[in-house]
């Protein structure tokens, strides 16, 4: 049996850009992707703390150490620059593996710099 488990999250990132004319996705600083165990193209859930929106999209790699968090395409309508969001990823794990799996939570400062490496 497989269970759908919380894998990782980037907690309280700040939206730095929103590009309505781009073809969907969220662009994330490559250093944040690595810290949060996120892959390019991976499906993620976005939770906007400012307006309560919850939606899903996929990850695009952004410039390393740029702090970029950019919502693209239709998702750009669900955020404002400066909004605080949580980016959550999930994984399907074998039931026994899931019992011992430890998810990763990455905390950031107001410029999306990693606080807990």
Which structural traits does this protein have?
117 residues; Barwin-like endoglucanases; 10% helix; globular
Structural commentary:
With 117 residues, the chain is mainly beta. The protein has one domain (2-107): Beta Barrel (Barwin-like endoglucanases). The protein is built from 2 helices and 8 strands; from the N terminus they run E-E-E-H-E-E-E-E-H-E. Strands 2-6-3-5-4-7-1-8 form an 8-stranded mixed beta sheet. It is globular and about 40 Å long. The N and C termini lie far apart (33 Å).
Radius of gyration, CA atoms, in whole angstroms: 14 Å
CATH topology: Barwin-like endoglucanases
Uncertain stretches: none
Biggest sheet: strands, sense, closure?
8 strands, mixed
Task: Count helical runs.
Answer: 2
How many beta-strand segments?
Answer: 8
Shape annotation: globular
Give helix % range.
10-25%
Strands of the biggest beta sheet: in what spatial order? 2-6-3-5-4-7-1-8
**What number of domains?**
1
CATH class: Mainly Beta
User: How much of the residues is beta strand, in percent?
Assistant: over 45%
Give a quick summary of the entry.
The protein is mainly β and 117 residues long.
Question: Topology of this structure?
Answer:
Layout lengths: L1 E13 L2 E3 L5 E5 H6 L7 E6 L5 E9 L6 E4 L11 E11 H6 L3 E4 L10
Parallel strand pairs: 1-8, 2-6, 3-5
Antiparallel strand pairs: 1-7, 3-6, 4-5, 4-7
């Amino acid at each position: 049996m497989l269970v759908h488990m919380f894998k990782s999250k980037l907690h309280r990132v700040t939206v730095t850009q929103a590009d309505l004319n781009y073809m969907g996705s969220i662009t994330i600083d490559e250093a944040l992707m690595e810290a949060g165990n996120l892959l390019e193209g991976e499906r993620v859930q976005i939770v906007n703390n400012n307006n309560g929106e919850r939606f899903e999209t996929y990850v695009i790699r952004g410039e390393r150490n740029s702090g970029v968090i950019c919502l693209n395409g239709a998702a750009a309508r669900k955020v404002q620059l400066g909004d605080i969001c949580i980016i959550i990823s999930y994984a399907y794990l074998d039931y026994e593996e899931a019992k011992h799996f430890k998810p990763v939570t990455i905390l950031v400062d107001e410029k999306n710099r990693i606080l807990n490496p």
